[in-house]
Design a protein that fits this description.
single chain; alpha+beta; 4-stranded antiparallel β-sheet; two-stranded parallel ribbon; 3 helices; about 20% helix
């Protein structure tokens, strides 16, 4: 009998069995793809309201795990990285609260205060990439 499922290939099984919970560093390109996958998740689509003033381009507060400030587009415009002092109350910005990878799991938490959102996401390894496995959206 063989276990089946998208996340039960031999590489992922080895990663899960050997994962001791120690954080691992991810290449900048992997971190950027993960963030873009999360922001494109269908669970977040109802909250962007990109047609409202100040929502586009999406502004993301600078974070040490993204010191290279990756560039991609949201709502047709390039995202904009901003220093924390520009993240003013009652303005639209995204804050990355947690970004931790181990051999078998990547956890990301972000906040979008203008909508009162706290988002938790979990990614699973898929070859040399990471695949979005679960998104939980909590509204305040």
């Amino acid at each position: 009998m063989r276990p089946q499922g998208d996340d039960l290939d031999l590489d992922n099984l080895v990663a899960r069995l050997s994962d001791d919970g120690t954080p691992i560093a991810l290449p900048a390109t992997s971190r950027a793809r993960v963030l873009e996958q999360l922001l494109d998740a269908r669970e977040l689509a109802p909250f962007w309201h990109s047609s409202l003033p100040g929502r586009s381009p999406l502004r993301i507060v600078e974070h040490p795990d993204f010191s290279e400030k990756p560039s991609f587009r949201m709502f047709g415009d390039p995202i904009r990285w901003i220093p924390e002092n520009e993240a003013l109350p009652r303005t639209a910005f995204l804050t990355i609260r947690r970004f931790v990878a181990t051999a078998s799991r990547l956890e990301v938490e972000v906040e979008y205060p203008i909508e009162g959102l706290r988002v938790s996401a979990e990614f699973q390894p898929s070859g040399s990439d990471w695949t979005l496995d679960r998104v939980v959206v909590a509204e305040r």
